[in-house]
Amino acid sequence: MNKADNIRIVAQNKKALHDYFVDDKYEAGIELFGTEVKSIRSGNLNLKDSWCSIVEGEIFVNGMHVSPYEQGNIFNRDPLRVRKLLMHKREIIKLFSLTKQDGYTLIPLSVYFVGSKVKLEIGLCKGKKLHDKRATEAERSARRDIDRAMKERNH
Q1: CA distance 50 to 101
Q2: DSSP secondary-structure letter at 63?
Q3: How far is residue 13's CA from residue 74's CA, in Å, rounded to a whole number?
Q4: Cα 62 versus chain centre, distance
Q5: Residue 64 and residue 94: Cα distance in Å, rounded?
Q6: Containing H/E element for 137?
Q7: What is the pTM of this model?
Q8: What does each C-alpha distance from 3 to 26, 29, 115, 117 come to in angstroms?
């Protein structure tokens, strides 16, 4: 079985694609507790205002909201707690140097399952200015109009 056949996307951060240019993407594992995995499996996850930080050679995701598991009782953790990400040391060092020098930031783009493991896709992003956001929106609108016209013409 192919790895691509075994991927199930749980949540995506569409706001990040609106607010940032994504230059590069990385995959990281997340250190989670059992009730958090069950909650993510049922889709109770929000990436909207989350970001990643690197502290003392370790990478963490901040602001990722994982709703408490309904049957979790005493085992539930804080929904907004800082979670450690699992990446190779050389990747973390590379990302740290890029974020310090070039004005990049690390933004979670999506959470997905690869088999039974929860993975987080991190984007190395640069912020968009207001005129960039307008240009992206105009481009998207034009593409939608073209697709609509082509569909009408073919039918």
Answers
A1: 21
A2: S
A3: 29
A4: 12
A5: 23
A6: helix 130-154
A7: 0.74
A8: 16, 16, 8, 12
d(CA 139, CA 135): 6
Size (the chain), residues: 155
| Long-range CB contact pairs, 114-120, < 8 A, 24+ | 114/3, 114/6, 114/7, 115/6, 117/29, 118/10, 118/29, 118/30, 118/32, 118/37, 118/40, 119/27, 119/28, 119/29, 119/30, 120/27, 120/28, 120/29, 120/30, 120/61, 120/85
Q: What is the pLDDT of residues 43-102, one digit of tens each?
A: 888 888 888 888 888 899 888 888 777 776 666 666 678 888 888 999 988 888 888 877
Q: Output the CA angle 125-93-51, nearest 5 degrees.
A: 35
Copy the structure tokens of residue 105. 């930031």
